[in-house]
Structures are given as C-alpha cells and as structure tokens.
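User: Just a sanity check before I run the rest of the batch. Below are the structure tokens for the first item. I only need the designed sequence back.
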C-alpha cells in the first residue's frame, strides 16, 4: 500500500520570513492528514525551513542541484550541500528547468543517481508539452524521459525514487488533466518501471501528479489507483489551500 505524498513546490517565491511563517501555519493544520507532507522552498530559505519543520512531519526538499560532488561550477549547489543543511528530498528535472535552463533527459538521470548516492530522495519530473500531446506523442515522450532515469539506476536504487508526472500544459494554467488522462499516464509509467526493474519496484514506487492541483480537484485525483500524491505549485503558496490538499480526503 503506497502512502500518498502531498508536496508543495514553492518555485521562486517567498523570502525567508515568509517561508518560515508558511511552514509554521502548515504545521498547525497537519493533524489527521492521511498521507505525507513535503515543502520545497528556494535554496535561500532551506536552512530556516528545515529548522522550522524540525520535529514535525513536514519533509523539506530543494528544487534543484548539480550532479557533481563539488568543483568549479559557479552558482551551483551539490547533493552533499543539500544533505548538509538537513534537506531529505530534491525535485529534479522540473519542466521549468527543462524549458528555461536546457536540462536534458541525460542530465536529469545523472542528477537522480547523484541524489541517491548522497542519501537524498529524488522527486524526478516528467511530462509532455501541449504540442506533444496534440501530436499523439505523450507516451513516447514520457517513456523516453522515464527510461533515461530508470536506465541510470539499479532496481534497488529505482525503488527509492519518486516520479512526478507533470503535463506541461497543465502547469500554472488552471487546466488540470482529467482523471482519465492522469490515470492513463501514471499506469503507463508504473508498467514501464515494472518492465525495466521488475513489477515489485513498479508497485512500490510513488508517482505524483502535478499541474493545476487545487482543493476542488484533489480528491478525484487522489482516488485514482496509480496516483500516489501531488506536486503542487500555486495552491501550495498559501497555508489554507495547501492544507486543504493535505486533507484531500475531506474535500
Ligand atoms: P501549479 O500547481 O501552479 O500548476 O504548478 C505545478 C508544478 O509545476 C509543481 O511542480
């Protein structure tokens, strides 16, 4: 039985004071949550958010990292540095990084492996653009992205990752995938994991859905058999809407 994970990706929002205030409010509203809760603040507030979340069930993720251990990479942050500040998870290969920062399937795969090597849980993102969907290429694209990640890992490593399916056309648009669209791709990803690393790995691994998840659509999405949680942008920036997602069973 896979536990659901509700993860807030704060993107490039919030000063340190705002980030701490938000996590304090989230902590107050967690009692009775049916699944796990995670927040991914910007690098600058990781230390403060880890401190604020300490002793609570809120896990803290970074939004990116480099795959190298260290070196002359100005502006980059290493896996060990994230571990050092108490981060337990890291979001990798978000479509905004693929689109605006030229991240490739190969780079995302290397980052996923490097995160595991450092003891971090990678939340590795995949998803098709609108033109890819309209051209009937959704499964081809998702397969290419997922396979690149899976092929960089052993079955034991693959069992420790989280995958997030985020159709690019649903991110920040208010156009959520229909339950049928989400379930179809999630089931496909799980089959693919099973094909590459064996069915038990496919069955154990959590696959999150991301893209315009809101309090009024979360319950239906979480009821889908292969949707194991949500990766949320906009609705994770305010405590009241994020807590409604965390308590998806009561919406
Ligand atoms: P929205 O929830 O704002 O659509 O963003 C989704 C996302 O990109 C989460 O990583």
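Assistant: Here's the designed sequence for the first item:
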């Amino acid at each position: 039985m896979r536990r659901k994970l509700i993860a807030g990706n704060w993107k490039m929002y919030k000063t340190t004071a705002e980030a701490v205030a938000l996590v304090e409010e989230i902590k107050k509203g967690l009692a009775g949550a049916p699944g796990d809760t995670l927040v991914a603040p910007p690098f600058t507030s990781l230390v403060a958010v880890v401190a604020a979340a300490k002793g609570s069930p809120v896990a803290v993720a970074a939004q990116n990292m480099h795959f190298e251990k260290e070196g002359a990479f100005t502006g980059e942050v290493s896996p060990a540095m994230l571990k050092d500040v108490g981060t337990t998870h890291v979001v990798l290969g978000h479509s905004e990084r693929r689109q605006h920062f030229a991240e490739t399937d190969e780079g995302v795969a290397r980052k996923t492996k490097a995160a595991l090597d450092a003891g971090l849980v990678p939340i590795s993102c995949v998803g098709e653009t609108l033109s890819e969907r309209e051209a009937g290429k959704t499964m081809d694209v998702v397969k290419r992205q997922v396979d690149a990640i899976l092929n960089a890992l052993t079955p034991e490593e693959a069992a420790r990752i989280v995958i997030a399916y985020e159709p690019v056309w649903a991110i920040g648009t208010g156009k959520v995938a229909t339950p049928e669209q989400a379930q179809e791709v999630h089931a496909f990803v799980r089959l693919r994991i099973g094909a590459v690393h064996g069915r038990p790995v496919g069955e154990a691994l959590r696959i999150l859905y991301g893209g315009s998840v809101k309090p009024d659509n979360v319950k239906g999405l979480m009821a889908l058999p292969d949707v194991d949680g949500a990766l949320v942008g906009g609705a994770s920036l305010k405590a009241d809407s994020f807590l409604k997602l965390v308590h998806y069973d009561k919406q």
